[in-house]
Amino acid sequence: MKEETETIKPKEIIRPTKKQKELMTFIEDFIAEHGYSPSYREIMAGTGHTSVATVSLHVNNLIKRGHLRKRDRSARSLEVVNPSKKLEPPEIEPKQLNTSQEKWLIHKVELFFKEAENATGVSDAELDKLYVLIGALKVLGLEGAAQAFLPRLSDLKKRHTDNQFSV
Questions:
Q1: How many domains does the structure of the chain reveal?
Q2: What pTM, to 2 d.p., does this model score?
Q3: 73 and 106: one domain?
Q4: What is the pLDDT along the chain (167 residues), one digit of tens a residue?
C-alpha cells in the first residue's frame, strides 16, 4: 500500500480589491482615532458607499480573505488582521493645576475638615469624603497638602471610633 502525503499549503491571502483596500484603510484609521471599530453605517458614510449591504458584502469578503476579523459576531468588533499602522496606547496627560486652582482646592478641603471637626459626631460618609479628598490631592500632585491633612484625618477617625463605642 502506498501512503500519500498531503502537502499542506499555508492559507493564501488574496489581495484586497481597490474598494476593499479603501474600506480597510478607513476601518484602520477609525480604530486608531477612536479606539473602537466603526459601525457599518459609519463605514458607509466614511467610504462613500450608498448601501449598508454593500459595506457588509465587502466586510464579509475581507473576513473570508483573512484581512479582517470579527470577534464573537458582536457590534463594533472588527479588527484589521495585519494593520499597517502601529497602534500605540494614547498618552494620558496629567491635569496640571495653576496656583489659583491649587489654593482654591486646598481651601475647599480645609472647609470640609473644619465642618467635620466642629460637628458633634463624624459619620462614616463624612470620613469617606475626607479620604477621597486627600486622595484627590495626591492624584493632582499636591502631595504636601495631602500629607498636611492626614494628622487631622487621624484625629477625626479616632474621635469617630471613640463616639461609636461610647454608650
A1: 2
A2: 0.46
A3: no
A4: 454 444 444 456 678 888 888 888 999 888 888 888 899 999 999 999 899 999 999 899 888 888 888 877 777 888 888 877 665 555 656 567 788 888 888 899 999 999 888 888 888 888 888 989 888 888 888 888 889 998 988 888 888 777 665 55
Domain membership of residue 44 as a residue range: 18-80
Q: Which of 167, 109, 100 is nearest to 137 (CA)?
A: 109
79, containing H or E segment: strand 78-80
CATH number of the domain enclosing 65: 1.10.10.10
Q: Regarding beta strands 78-80 and 68-70, do their DSSP bridges make them parallel or antiparallel, or are they unpaired?
A: antiparallel
Write phi, then psi, for 6 (nearest 5 degrees). -90, 135
